[in-house]
């Protein structure tokens, strides 16, 4: 007959029996909650400015201590652990607020009003209409020179005309645009 195995003694690491495990018990944590909730709330109130945030921080501290209760080996240190957790959570809440304020304090980029956008559209429409009224070569030179941002030499190469022709078509095209844009529509 094989020798009887000794009874297994549950320990903290395997978590097989919460009532026998070392660390803070749920009952001790419940008593700590009843006895020290208000004082922890007062601590949070000194660090934070609104009641809702203070209550959230204290509740979160108790949740975290409950989750880590087996690591708090000495039940007498539970309150110290809770206080430190409240302080850390309050710091985190303040950091989030400061970051939010920094993000909100950045000015929004200037945006054109709807009225300005409408005027810009009217000007674009008038320019397109005036461009359509130009001679083909004048229009090509102006589009390549000013909208495609090419140099006069690049325009000459692209169109296969001389540099002097580019200058002449460009100058005549601009003069024609001025007249067309000033004329009443």
Summed up, what is this model?
With 185 residues, the protein is an all-alpha fold. Helices cover 68% and strands 0% of the residues. The protein has 2 domains: 26-105, Rna Polymerase Sigma Factor, Chain: A; 128-182, Winged helix-like DNA-binding domain superfamily/Winged helix DNA-binding domain (Arc Repressor Mutant, subunit A), CATH 1.10.10.10.
Molecular shape: rod-shaped
Rg measurement, Å:
39 Å
Number of helices: 7
CATH arch. level architecture of the largest domain: Orthogonal Bundle
Give the strand tally.
0
Keywords: DNA-binding, Sigma factor, Transcription, Transcription regulation
Organism: Streptomyces siamensis
Protein name: SigE family RNA polymerase sigma factor
Domain RNA polymerase sigma factor 70 region 4 type: 125-177
Structure description:
The structure is a single chain. With 185 residues, the protein is mainly α. α4 crosses α7. The chain has helices at residues 26-47, 51-67, 78-105, 114-132, 136-147, 152-159, 163-182. Residues 33-97 form the RNA polymerase sigma-70 region domain. Residues 1-22 are annotated as: Disordered. Belongs to the sigma-70 factor family. ECF subfamily.
Task: Based on the model shown, name its key terms.
185 residues; 68% helix; RNA_pol_sigma70_r4_t2; Rna Polymerase Sigma Factor, Chain: A; mainly alpha; single chain; transcription regulation; sigma factor; rod-shaped; Arc Repressor Mutant, subunit A; transcription; disordered N terminus; 2 domains; RNA_pol_sigma_r3/r4-like
